[in-house]
Design brief:
The chain is mainly alpha-helical. The chain is 68% helix and 0% strand.
């Protein structure tokens, strides 16, 4: 679970910095933004997460419950 949380945190921080202009936008950042826009779990997150068919919002709720 720690690997998943680290991946989520890092990728969201990188995307935020890219959108603010402090980092160049990479393909991974574009894919993350696209996934967030479509309410889907990003591929980089699902590679280190448990298998789930839930939408992003429901999946995040489940991640929070699993961490608690």
């Amino acid at each position: 679970m720690n690997v998943l949380l680290k991946e989520i945190k890092t990728s969201l921080q990188d995307l935020d910095a890219g959108l603010k202009g402090t980092l160049n936008i990479t393909e991974a950042m574009e894919n993350l933004a696209y996934s967030l826009n479509l309410n889907r779990v990003d591929d980089s997150w699902s590679k280190v997460a448990y298998l789930s068919k839930k939408s992003l919002l429901n999946w995040l709720d489940d991640v929070v419950l699993r961490c608690a």
